[in-house]
Write a structure and sequence with these properties.
Structural class of chain B: alpha+beta
Shape of chain B: globular
Helix content of chain B: 10-25%
Distance between the termini of chain B: 63 Å
Order of helices and strands of chain A: HEEEEHHHEEEHEHHEEEHEHEEEEHEEEE
Shape of chain A: globular
Strand content of chain A: 35-45%
Radius of gyration of chain B: 25 Å
Number of helices of chain A: 10
Oligomer: heterodimer
Largest interface: A-B, 116 and 106 residues
Number of helices of chain B: 8
Structural class of chain A: alpha+beta
Number of strands of chain A: 20
Chain lengths: ~475, ~525
């Protein structure tokens, strides 16, 4: 269980009060999470952990100086505030400290009811049991294949308070179910993938996910195996990317729209922010919009400011970037409510890419010439940030589409694309769907992306 | 370092609920970090603690955790144990067979205290001195054309407490470590380019920490290189001999060794839903006698959890197995996976190989913190040094490249191949180092690459990696790499910036914009 609104508020206020007692202005943030997962492999479920983490960060300020102390327990605050006093004596001034944020008149977390996690969220164990039994059953019915699953339920709570009277709290929660079928009739081991993302575990159609993964596994057996790179070091082809592939890519490239990175010249839009620079095709409209119904609801940032909707790319034209309190002050701009607590953590975290009215099947039907369909991105990397050179391997199901249908299955294939170029070559998109964080490192802040299946013309594939 | 948890009470209670094995871990951390981003300071002090309980019931694991707010009372402990047992019971219903654990090596009930008071030289620096040296380092990184600097100095102390109930007998293990991380990064912008140079100097007690003045000199060198790289020629695409600097090779080793963990072996494939399997299962590389020649004969790779100074150093792993040193590759031939008690037991079930149950490779179960289950993790990986000095390594190269410092990397599924982008390259011409090249990258297939290594240097460096990621939910943990530079022949190098504009294909319509 999370600590809950009242406990977190009390924890925050106690920290702020103590800092104030020692003569400091103070800002405190609390972030807590409960991660409840079940994971299986060849021999059935091998992990069912519940991870509980929580941390209070107290920033103690005196004039232009500030230090932070981090505690997990209210009992430690006193000791740490005393350590903070020692730290600040030797600290250098920080000119990008912003004025403390005051309590806003409107609190969307209250009006939108974002301060509780529904009771049914916690009732996940019987659903997980049935989901993993469904995997075993499907594997029994599909000779040569076995299934592995990952069912994740994450709930977070975030609170902020400061000595200017601010006190805020919200929760967020989501569930993910992933199935990978492994095996096949060939010498080479093949894999097939399906997933579903939802807010509550009850909303996940786990039978549908299992059925989809094993249907793709059967399809993998039926279709011929073709290596699009056979004998070549690189090939250029059209591609259809699944939403989780698109999300991985755009989330990696989201730092492009960090105000800090733009201001310091590290982003590839740094030289394009003046005037109306085209950085994508006309069909690309990308914004950071926590109010989108499919996004996780993140009403304020770690400075305590209401999060704004920020248009990043409007019909292909660069439109704006995100700032936290410190990066805004550094750049001489206004915060957009995207502070992650540090100067360089002002990233968009509710990416919404407007999709179109097609289904993923429509995208396949539109393939006249050979097109690769990539289901899942494996180990992506930004090889050159200044131009958004991004690479990953299509894994867990790479199909070749031609003449309007899937005609072959392919081994894992590495894609390499230059973001600026690829976003100008998007031909078709499906409706957008939500993608949430699957990896879930301890104390990683929640984020979401609402993105479509995407068909892109002329993308480079390379050997390994 | 905090109140005592009534561990034996909790573990006996779990036993009474049907647990055949159970353990409880408490992880406490204290850290002080001085950070400067573009000159703006952010000093931080942290103190956190948490507890995790793991039970094996009906042959399946349950695991639960909480942050510690003082020592939890008996009622809270009972609640946690019940939750944990319930998780295990549900898991057991989704398993076809019971989990088998290998025996716990050298188990003696009672108290084992491995704590020391040793700290790093940077622990003794006063807070004022730390702020001052950081300012000096920042100054060294600053200069004309530098647009961003990021640096920090962090000292950490961590104490791990493990209580176990094994065959009905109770044991407690205390161990601690003091570590320090220094990170320097400077980014230059100009001539349409962005170039970053960085260096991580991190380790625990025993690591050869540089003096503050030496770090300042490293900072100046990084700044000079970042600026010089702006006007350096782009790395050309070609196949050539490459000398990998120790920091670059540590990443190469790290990413290859990820595929040498037993939980990724084909018979278990615990990473099926995420990072995939292991290259060791690839039948293409098996010889007639069933051995697997992973690398050239000059390569001997050890997993060594006993080596002082490394992030993979400990006295006992999170299974309670004592730290060990064992070969991963001996003269190029694959010898061992990293194991936990679980993977050794499960692979024994799958293969019937009794040697697995007493393997020295058991002892690699580690959890990043209290809130995550132990997984098989690499410890310190040591490439046994060869005879060649750096000069000798490059002396025989007519046309080649010396590359250093990882920038970005991407692995192919099952670790069969890789692409590594690097921060800096230097041409080798006629056996000597020549000018800089920018944006170097190289790629290849893992096994052929390791077989192409023709010489191993003799001058080793310790490179600790503080945040190696693995698992779902994911965990970050420290690992160590003690490596000399090596010479690899016929490597495909290219520019990580390189991008050919796509040629218009027949039947293409005009781009939509």
């Amino acid at each position: 269980m999370l600590l809950g609104r009242e406990y977190v508020r009390e924890f925050l206020l106690r920290a702020v009060k103590l800092a104030k007692h020692h003569g400091f202005d103070a800002e405190a943030t609390y972030f807590g999470e409960q991660v409840s997962a079940m994971r299986s492999a060849r021999r059935g479920v091998h992990q069912t952990p519940i991870g509980r983490e929580g941390e209070l960060v107290l920033r103690m300020r005196r004039g232009k100086k500030a230090v932070e102390v981090v505690v997990s327990s209210p009992a430690e605050i006193g000791t740490m505030v005393r350590l903070g006093k020692e730290l600040i004596a030797s600290a250098k001034p920080n000119p990008v400290l912003y004025p403390l944020v005051r309590q806003p008149k409107t609190l969307p977390e209250e009006t939108l009811g974002l301060q509780v996690v529904p009771k049914q969220f916690w009732d996940d164990l019987s659903i997980k049991r049935r989901a993993f039994q469904a995997i075993n059953k499907a594997a029994d019915a599909t000779p040569g294949w076995y299934g592995a699953g990952y069912f994740l339920c994450v709930a977070n709570e975030t609170g902020v308070a400061n000595s200017a009277g601010l006190i805020r709290y919200f929760t967020t929660y989501y569930s993910v179910f992933i199935v990978v079928a492994t095996g096949g009739k060939r010498k080479r081991t093949m894999t097939a993938y399906a997933d579903e993302y939802a807010r509550l575990p009850q909303e996940i159609n786990f039978r549908g996910v299992v059925e989809q993964a094993f249907a793709r596994a059967r399809l993998t057996d039926e279709l011929p195996l073709v290596d699009p790179l056979h004998g070549r070091t690189r090939v250029r082809m059209d591609v259809i990317l699944s939403p989780n592939f698109v999300a991985d890519w755009l989330k990696a490239e989201a730092m492009t729209f960090s105000g800090y990175r733009i201001h310091t010249g590290q982003s590839y839009v740094s030289s394009r922010v003046q005037g109306k620079s085209r950085i994508a095709g006309r069909n690309i409209t990308l914004r950071d919009d926590w109010l989108n119904p499919l996004c996780l609801k993140l009403p304020f940032d770690l400075d305590g400011r209401n999060r704004q909707k920020v248009m990043l790319v409007d019909l292909g034209i660069y439109a704006g970037c995100t700032y936290g309190g410190m990066s805004a002050k550094m750049a001489g701009s206004k915060s957009t409510g995207h502070s992650g607590g540090e100067l360089d953590r002002d990233l968009p975290d509710s990416l919404v890419l407007e999709g179109q009215d097609n289904s993923s099947e429509d995208l396949v039907r539109s393939c006249v010439r050979p097109t690769l369909v990539l289901m899942w991105s494996h180990y992506n990397a930004d090889m050159y940030e200044k131009e958004g050179m991004w690479t990953a391997t299509g894994h867990h199901g790479v199909f070749l589409a031609k003449g309007g249908k899937l005609v072959a299955v392919c081994p894992p294939t590495r894609i390499r694309l230059r973001t600026l170029d690829a976003l100008r070559r998007v031909q078709k998109m499906s409706a957008s769907k939500p993608i949430y964080d699957v990896e879930c490192y301890p104390l990683s802040p929640p984020d979401s992306a609402v993105v479509p299946w995407m068909k892109i013309r002329g993308v480079e594939f390379i050997n390994l | 370092m905090g109140e005592k948890v009534e561990a034996q009470y909790a573990l006996r209670y779990a036993q009474s609920l049907g647990a055949s094995y159970t353990d409880l871990r408490v992880v406490r951390r204290c850290a002080v970090r001085h950070e400067l981003i573009c000159g703006f300071p952010n000093p931080t002090a942290a103190r956190t603690a948490g507890l995790g309980i793991r039970v094996l019931v009906n042959g399946a694991w349950g695991f639960t955790s909480l942050m510690l707010d003082g020592a939890p009372g008996p009622a809270r402990l009972r609640e946690l144990v019940k939750e944990c047992v319930e998780l295990a019971e549900v898991s057991a219903r989704c398993r076809q067979s019971r989990t088998k654990l290998a025996p716990l090596r050298g188990f003696v009930p009672g108290l084992v205290d491995c704590r020391t008071r040793a700290t790093t030289p940077y622990h003794s620096l006063s807070l004022k001195s730390r702020a001052q040296v950081l300012a000096d380092w920042d100054h060294a990184l600053s200069g004309k054309m530098i647009c961003a600097r990021e640096l920090y100095l962090e000292t950490e102390e961590r104490e791990d407490y493990l209580a176990q109930l094994y065959n009905g007998e109770f044991r407690e293990i205390y161990q601690n470590r003091a570590g320090c991380e220094i990170f320097l990064s400077t980014t230059a912008v100009g001539y349409g380019e962005v170039q970053t140079r960085s260096r991580m100097l991190a380790g625990i007690v025993g690591y050869p920490f540089p003096l503050t003045e030496e770090v300042t000199a490293i900072g100046r060198q990084l700044r000079r290189e970042a600026v010089a790289l702006l006007r350096a020629p782009e790395c050309k695409e070609e196949q050539c001999d490459v000398v990998l600097a120790a920091d670059m090779l540590s990443l190469q080793i790290h990413e290859s060794v990820h595929g040498m963990k037993a939980d990724r072996a084909g018979q278990l494939n615990y990473e099926a839903t995420f990072m995939g399997g292991d290259v060791i299962s690839d039948p293409r590389f098996l010889s007639d006698d069933g051995s697997f020649l992973f690398a050239n004969k000059c390569v001997t790779l050890l997993a060594d959890a006993t080596r002082p100074g490394g992030y993979g150093t400990f006295s006992y792993d999170d299974d309670g197995s004592p730290a060990s040193c064992f070969p991963l590759l001996a003269q190029g031939e694959f010898k061992n996976f990293h194991h936990s008690r679980e993977t050794a037991g499960e692979l024994f079930k799958a293969t019937g190989d009794h040697m697995l149950l007493t393997s020295p490779a058991i002892g690699c179960a580690r959890a990043s913190d209290h809130s995550r289950m132990p997984l098989v993790r690499m410890t310190n990986t040591v490439l046994v040094p060869g005879q060649a000095t750096f000069g000798q390594l490059i002396s025989g190269i007519d046309r080649g490249l010396f590359i250093a410092t990882p920038y970005a990397w991407s692995m192919f599924p099952d670790r069969r191949g890789f692409i590594f982008g690097c921060e800096i390259g230097r041409l080798i011409r006629k056996g000597k180092l020549a000018g800089l090249v920018r944006n170097p990258a190289y790629r290849g297939e893992t096994v052929p690459f390791w077989r192409s290594i023709s010489a191993v240097g003799c001058e080793t460096e310790f490179h600790n990696q503080p945040d190696c990621g693995k698992g779902l939910p994911a965990q970050r943990i420290g690992t160590g790499h003690l490596t000399p530079p090596v010479l690899a022949e016929g490597v495909q190098v290219f520019s990580r910036r390189r991008f050919r504009n796509p040629s218009r294909q027949k039947g293409d319509k005009k781009p939509c914009c």
